[in-house]
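Materials and Methods. Structural model of (wild Malaysian banana) hypothetical protein. The 342-residue sequence of (wild Malaysian banana) hypothetical protein from Musa acuminata subsp. malaccensis was retrieved and submitted for structure prediction as follows.
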Amino acid sequence: MGNCAPKPKPRSRPAQHSSSLLTPDFPAVRLYGPESCPISSCLRLALLYKSVPFQFVPRSPLLGLPFLQCGADTVVGAADSLLRELDSRFPRPPTTATALADMTSAAEEVALVTALQHRSVERHVEELARWATEMASGGGGRKGEAARMERSYGQLAEVVLEHAQMEERLLFPAFESAADRGVCKVANEEHARDLPIINGIKEDIKSMVVMEAGTPFHQEALLNLSLRLKTLEEHFKGHFQEEEKNMLPLLEMAMRSQREEGEDESSSRSWMEQVLVLMEATHSPRLFPFFMAGLLPEEAMQYVGLVCRQTADQQRLASMLRSLITVLETKQSIVGILRQPT
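The predicted structure was written out as tokens:
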């Protein structure tokens, strides 16, 4: 899942409990570990998604290895052991150590990451359509709201186009060599169908930003925008359902076919890494928090686990996870402030 100096032993040891290492007053959970360590980041994300109050201490007296203090217990162990310890104390949502425990094949990993990307895109489009409808019914929205929508839609369009290119360059050629070419032909046609709609919505929002809010032209533009977004939402849902029903189940066969044609096991198992490389912007600190915002907590933990398994560049991984942590901690702080009695 990542490297912290010194490197932990390959064999996962059960988490060990002790109440003697540290004894000062502390919150329910305190996490110690280097800030640049992906294991520390995964533990922080697990606690954030579980909505567990915790304190992160960016150092470790245990030779730089991350460890937990849960109440009076100090919990030491390998990454998966620490994540399972959190699951035993705070079950929902399950961390990657539990959610991905039975997932061993490259085909399963790629199918899951593709389906999770579908869920994120669906929810973002649905939210944008709802947002446009509310702006239209509210007289055009607050000052600067159209510009915020333009930024959000721009991020979504970037994710969608990278996802489509990943499928066309990596998945579809494998499917064509192992199954019915007609399945991929339909999927490619649907990609081509939706591209003009995606670009057209971007131009519609750009025009709306410079309009005077509340005018008849602005209201009409908002109504048309909400309709186009709903159309795009329907297209995406149908397209994704078709892929998940008729294409993703063929991944194992496609990978087997490639191995039989001369590609070795290590090549097939690098598919997940190829997904991350082909979707470089989506998995950058700039876009990764936006993409992850479209996933439910349990889905998000699954996605983080898959990314940590397959990202060879540890510096890139640490930067990606830190960007997500920053956004989640900021949201948590805002929620905490809003909940304070006035």
